[in-house]
Amino acid sequence: MIIIAEELVALKDEVIMQFNGTKLDKKKFIFWKSDPFLVFHKSLESGDYAVVHKTEVVKNTLNPTWQKFSIPVRTLCNGDYDRSIKVVCYDWNSSGDHSHIGEFFVTLRQLAEGPLGSNVFQCVHPEKQKKNSSYTHSGLISLDFFEIRQIHSFMDYIKGGTQLHCSIAIDFTGVLEAYRNCIHQVQLYGPTNFSPVINHVSRFASTYRDGSSYFILLILTDGIITDMPQTIQAIVSASVLPMSIIIVGIGTADFTAMEVLDADTVPLKAGGVHASRDIVQFVPFNRFVTMGDPSMARIRLAREVLAEIPTQFTGYMKANNIAPRPPQENVSVLPPDPMFAHTTI
CB within 8 A of 74, min separation 6: which ones? Predict the structure, then answer.
């Protein structure tokens, strides 16, 4: 494993691009066309190139059109508009040994000129070029779409006045001390159903889609869930709303169902519809209970619990083209970093 580190400049722009290919080389057998995809490489100060983006594979075609994609400018070229970007076109193979179709070099400054013109590139295979003097190229790659827009951060929205609303749902099974303290004040029910509380918070979130508010639901549970299909449906429906769900598993129960809801590897799907974005974060409480230093355990738990909120938050705003409002001058003091906080969580 080779790890390469390079300081990135503080930029808040991203580039959105789309490419198509024309008459790419056929790399498969006689009855099959190629399955092309593009790989973008950033030039490093060492002279090497590092992969920064891969497009999807377009199956069985020599004239592909790849989907639009976005990438931060600092990731693509470290903010240097004249830094070389290498783009390699491959033919996908199930074995993982992809066939090299060709490549070209470009800069962000050139791409910023937009489609057509100089942004139609000859896709050249270096080895073929060396061996055959009559070889010209292995097809053309054209820029179809180009746009640069500002990336808004989580703090931009907070400074602009977006309010965060937190709801907490507690499954009292096993939480013995809380049970003893609350048994005379609460009415307990048998099933452990998540969907009612998710739908309850969703109703509030559905009325604030303009970016003025964002809702966070914290569920404390022992891992037993009796309405899994309904819960998945509720989460899929909530994935289009300004809302995140944090599930903290308490105890030693089987948390397989919670991992499914987290959906880090397999997206949730209900009634043939996929969740539009990942809004669930699952954290097992026991992972932090065994730590020797209670204060550090609290800090790490807080970090883990809140780790995905900024990304989920900005994901909603970006998907709905909501820009932050101008910073408010009367904003109260922002909360401290948990690393430097000494209050009890």
Answer: 8, 9, 10, 11
